[in-house]
Amino acid sequence: QVQLVESGGGLVQPGESLRLSCVASGFLLDEYTVGWFQQAPGKEREGISSLTPDGDTYYFGSAKGRFTITRGDGPNTVSLQMNDLKPDDTGIYYCAVWGKHEFTFWGRGTQVTVSS
To answer: What is the mean pLDDT of the chain?
Structure first.
């Protein structure tokens, strides 16, 4: 079965950290550009970070300097280390893989809530 499964979300206080994982099954995640996206409450889904098969990384918006995307925590896994979390980081986090022209295959997401 071909799927992406995100995990690692939860409820944390401002300033704390979380590590999200995106695990693929049915295909080799290393062969694809993988992206992480945030959908904040009442807002559109936005790109947070991406990682190419060659190891190039990209960060967008407030993720710069606080988040790190990596491969290899486990087999067929891409992780997103999120440090110094802020209330605006609250939302559902999705991972996705790049197709020919866009991110075409998505997981179901994991909830991150940052609140004191």
So the answer is: 96
